[in-house]
Amino acid sequence: MSRDHKPHVERSRIEALGGYIYDGYLNGYLSVARAFGNWHIEGLKGVNCPLIAEPEVRRAVLTPDDEFMIIGCDGFWDVFTNESAVAFARRRLQQHNDPEQCSHDLVDEALRRCSSDNLTVVTVCFQKSPPPRLFPRFMARRCMHFEKQL
């Protein structure tokens, strides 16, 4: 349901407002093209500023298959792919089914992965019960042992 708001994704809008992208950073400073704050950085102030706080809004019809949503800032998504965040959150929700604790767990894991930016995560659950297990917890394994006879 999301797309990254990195400067290179919004290059035409940024350049139309007099901004530039240097080494992947907006005006050489920010790794995002949309943010709240950061107005202290020179060149990111005023009406025609290349940095905007306007959110991207999408509507979606939820189904019974929709389990949860993770909302996170760029410091979080710098160290998690969408898939790895969902897998991590799913495991945590299966353990304790607590979205607030899951958000804390995700931030702790982002710190463990050496995120060097600010970290904010909100987990929103759409179901009362924890996510179902997609794979059996324990899979039977066959082991064969061969002994060499002398």
UniProtKB/TrEMBL annotation:
Residues 1-126 form the PPM-type phosphatase domain. Gene3D superfamilies: PPM-type phosphatase domain. Pfam families: PP2C. GO terms for molecular function: protein serine/threonine phosphatase activity. InterPro entries: PP2C, PPM-type-like_dom_sf, PPM-type_phosphatase-like_dom. Signal peptide: none annotated. This is PPM-type phosphatase domain-containing protein. The lineage of its organism: Eukaryota, Viridiplantae, Streptophyta, Embryophyta, Tracheophyta.
